[in-house]
Amino acid sequence: MTDRLETAANPEGLNRVVIEPLTRVEGHGKVTLLQDDDHHIHQVRLHIAEFRGFEKFIQGRPYWELPVLVQRLCGICPVSHHLAAAKATDALVGCEALTPTAEKIRRLMHYGQVLQSHALHFFHLSSPDLLFGFDDDIAHRNIFGVIEDYPEIARQGVLLRKFGQEVIRVTAGKRIHGTGAIPGGVNKPVSGEERDYLLADVRQMIEWGQQAVELTRRIFMESPDYHREFAGFDSNMLSLVAQDGAFELYHGGLRALDENGATLFDHADCQDYDRLLHEEVRSWSYMKFPFIVKAGQRDGWYRVGPLARVNNADYFPTPLAEQEAQSFRELDAGRPVQASLAYHWARMIELLYCAEAIGILLEDDDISGTELVRRGEMQHRGVGVIEAPRGTLFHHYEINDDGLVEKANLIVSTTHNNQAMNEAIRQVANRYLDGKELNEGLLNHIEVAIRAYDPCLSCATHALGKMPLEVRLVSSGGELVDRLVKSPAGEVAHGS
Amino acid sequence: MNTRKTFRMDGRTIPFEDGQSIIDAALAAGEYIPHLCHNPEFTPHGSCRVCTVDVDGRMVSACTQPAAEGQQVVNNSDPVNHYRRRLLQMLFVEGNHVCPGCEKSGACQLQAVAYYTGMLAPHFTHFFPRREVDASHPDTVIDFNRCILCELCVRASRDVDGKNVFSISGRGIQSRLIINSNTGRLGDSDYDRADKAASVCPVGAILPKHQGYEVPIGERLYDQRPISVVGDVAQAKQGDNGDG
User: Burial, B11: exposed, middle or buried (Cβ in 10 Å; 0-12, 13-18, 19+)?
Assistant: First the structure.
């Protein structure tokens, strides 16, 4: 832990270095560093500079709008929000089990989503760092450099993403912000023509998925010690797992393991998420800091996403992904892999899994079934959980007797990784930047650490109404003219 | 010899009968004039003005203007459509019409007419009025954010259902749809989902409850063909109009 770098003891007189905006991540964020005259680092923070407020403005809206409305949180993985909200509304309409057709179509949509998001992240956003080095020339260290130097890798990245988007279009109606999932089911089956269209490419996608895993494995193993150490630290891990402990992205129980792989809780019902996890608000970020209640506020922070999922799962249900996962698990002799940069490797194993799982589902006749929706007795509370590309995603809604939303709470994947990302950049700052004069290449090390987590910062900002804020009016001469302070309770007052 | 009376519209001869409005004669002849508050089943209202046409150099609403022998009507021209787009833009900014999240999207007459006339952006500053959703009725929800004050529900409830469940209150920019019940809520009124008023709303203001987005993208009322070919929401068979 590098707690001392969260808040400098004496910030006065320190030099402030700002990385803004963070590049090659989704959404808008910044990192600030406080450095003394000898270039020693005293404070490092990842700030989220925007907020959404969806939890507030969906209050009063009809529940059946939620899957379509709330997915507008994001343009990168809207399917995750679409499905998490749909699962929550399943609970609201008393649907205890989807029809086989509905569940398989939703899974197909979700796997398409995870595949395209992972392809986007690795090939477009992160591969320039990994292929060219963290301090390569900035004019070259981007997707255009990849296209120039590794045209086949770039091409595979683009076409893998396209395939995932097409799976989404077929199942949801649109590539972005579709309407496929509705409370209690889905609104369309997959036609024979659509199935054949997707099947034509699936074998190629599996092959490229294998190559992508091999590429990330090879890059990691070229300098295993460096890659372990870079932003490496121990943490708890949280994810869904299937009933038999298998890797699971769509539906299952919650499993939390500590840094040694010991169980904190297992197969927990997501409806109880708010007893298992709490969220802390800190004054300097719009993103909350969740923690596992059982492990306490200080030590209960954890990681989610590909690294946590691959670590937590007992096995992968598809053969090629399982083979790759076995190789991954050998990295630290069976102990959970803790390296931040191993996220890339784990992410490509998941991409391969999705391609395999899509192939299996496309051969399943249930996806062309006609029983699309099941409903039961209306309920007032519904919680939906799903493994989004970036990690576990919770949607929790409460509605009144008229069916209008009274309360909503979203814990978005990136939010779970808030403390971990701060920890990662503090490790990097401490190890590689401390005592040095900063340049672009060194600062990119910070961004590399953040990118490993594939944060979606726009999705993850939900501290509306609880954030203490301060607004200062300063004259051109630098004198404080006025000061407005909003307390955590929301009261606004002038201060001196 | 019995010759039918006619007028000319956009170079075509349109026959009409005495007392018929320009829009009804045009629609009967297969010529589309964009409109929102007009429905041939009800008394013309003339409130939305989207059916404005140029008749012998004067801009008039085609739903209230009787057809007359020898009229020269301009319907589909740049100046007339520019005028319609402005009217539509005012309707969009006056309410809260959030098409991306609206369950009526793809089957909404306001959206379809906006597409038809080439309205690409709201142009004016949004009012963002604060309006409520009334979900007190077990079968129907009213989202006042989307009401365009066409009064079709008012006319249907009064003239067909004989109930007077709806009315418009206030004047000018303060005009709003109100419900005839002790509490002002639909659940406490005489409204029934089988009422004519339940199926005439051209936008997403009066909708069946507990459903939405059941019709997949690509199969909604206006997904494949424009409103000039498909016709009005109310004409589509109830339950087959995209979202109920």
Answer: exposed
Q: What b/e string do you get for A148-184 counting C-beta neighbours within 10 Å, with b at 16 or more?
A: eebeebbebbbbbbebbbbbbbbbbbebbbbbbbbbb
pLDDT in tens, A292-310: 999 999 999 999 999 999 9
- Is A11 exposed, middle or buried (CB count within 10 Å of its CB: 0-12, 13-18, 19+)? exposed
Res A476: pLDDT: 64
Residues of chain A in contact with residue B214, where contact means CB-CB under 8 angstroms, are: 182, 187
> Which residue range(s) make up the domain with B100?
87-210
A4: how many CB neighbours lie within 10 A of its CB? 12
Residues B199 and B92 in one domain: yes
- Asked if residue B106 belongs to a domain, the reply is yes
Residues of A with CB below 8 A from B218's CB?
Answer: 173
Of B34, B53, B76, which one is at a domain's C-terminal end? Answer: B76
Q: How far is B162 from chain A (nearest CA, A)?
A: 27
Closest among A79, A86, A67 to A110, alpha carbons compared: A79
DSSP A335-351: SPP--TTHHHHHHHHHH
Any idea what DSSP says for residue A126?
I
CATH of A54-419, one of 3.80.10.10, 1.10.10.10, 3.30.365.10, 1.10.645.10: 1.10.645.10
Tell me the per-residue pLDDT of B119-164, one tens digit each, with 9 for 90 and over.
999 999 999 999 999 999 999 999 999 999 999 999 999 999 999 9
Q: How many domains does chain B fold into?
A: 2
Residues B39 and B106 in one domain: no
CB A211 within 8 A of CB A152: no
Contact B103 A65 (CB under 8 A): yes
Q: The complex's ipTM?
A: 0.92
